[in-house]
Amino acid sequence: MSITNKGDNLDRYLLGRQLMVLILVFLINFCGDPIKDATLWGLPQWFTDIFFYIGFAMILFTCMVGQLNTQVNASLYMIDYVNNYVALLTFWVAMGIECSGILHICYVVKAIVIAIAARAFKSNEEARSCCGSIFYWFRVLFSFSLLTFSFVVTFAALIEGKTEMWEGVPNFAAIFIFFVMLIIVGLLEGMQIAFFAVAKLHESERGVNSNKFAKLTCDVLYNKRDGLNLPGFMIGRQLCVVSCYFFIAHFTTQKVEEGDSNVLNLPDAVQAFLNTGLCGALLTTVFGSVSWQLVADAFPFAFLSTPLTYIMLRICLLLEATGICNGAWVLASIHKNLAGFQDDDIHIGTAEERAAQRRKDGAGRDNDLFALTGADGLKSV
């Protein structure tokens, strides 16, 4: 945690993590793509098409096993959840992705958004040295070049019909659906940021009276069901986002049939890399995730004021109400018992105990937590 909270490392981790998540989803789609005309247990063709050919089974599996159940435990048992080598490895992999410069174009987007919002740029680190600035802008140029290449080859593959898009879908329709999916993902990513930003404000400070849809959105989120609509939205949102990720993976993962020429006549080695879908993951991270999050952070009220926000909120709440992802709670309970997660209060005391301790010694107290080596050693953090 000392490394995570040093300087701007948390922002770096979050940026690298976003691409890491997209890469994993695209690889899951690549590995779980069913064989053409495959059958299973004699199930009806319509059932096989929905759950395997379209990928609904993989979507539910990824959503509940890979995301929702871990998010439940991470939100309830924060200390135990990060106190292991898996979390440490994940952190350093995400930091390595950010350090590589693949996503440095996002920092330029951030600077543009901050300038438009007339905000002061904030950083927890000292100004970069001359060498540091040269290295930084080199990575920005590298990121921009890689993003441009990814866009060109992906768009060319869509035009040429050399992707894993489902049969029967025209090329122009695939291009249109691809951009629609990017917009939906971006809207959902931005809504999450905007909703939590506005949730911190008093109702009188939200300034929603001047806009009909902002008022409707806030009323549904914060005043209905005793505030449970906000976590309900997060569950429904996760299912929507994962679904869009898998659909985008289908649209952007390239597939060249035997005997056909490569996309843009690129070498076979390059085509083999493009077939993994990683270019699509990069496009989705920048255009469908990070950019929208930055805009929502700068203009949360603008996000609340659009009819699309209200419509997507209702759709997410409807999906959550169906209970289709309730299996995540069972999986979270099993994971919690197997891992032996304990409440944070056991490690650091309740809020009242911490306040009393601060009054007693005039400072925050050190807390003993299990080291990464397990119960054999304790360390003070």
Spatial gap, N to C terminus: 8 Å
So what's the overall shape? globular
How much of the sequence lies in strands comes to: under 5%
Whole-angstrom Rg: 23 Å
Major beta sheet summary: 2 strands, antiparallel
Give the helices and strands, then pairings.
Blueprint lengths: L8 H24 L12 H9 L2 H21 L1 H5 L2 H15 L5 H12 L13 H31 L10 H29 L12 H12 L5 H24 L15 H7 L3 H21 L1 H5 L2 H15 L5 H13 L4 H5 L2 H11 L6 E4 L2 E7 L1
Antiparallel strand pairs: 1-2
Helix pairs in contact: 1-5, 1-10, 1-12, 3-10, 3-15, 6-12, 7-8, 7-12, 8-10, 8-12, 9-14, 10-12, 10-14
Care to describe what's here?
The protein is mainly alpha-helical and 381 residues long. Helix content is 68%, strand content 3%. A two-stranded antiparallel sheet has the order 1-2. Helix 7 crosses helix 12 and helix 8 packs parallel to helix 12. The longest helix is centred in the middle third of the chain and has 31 residues.
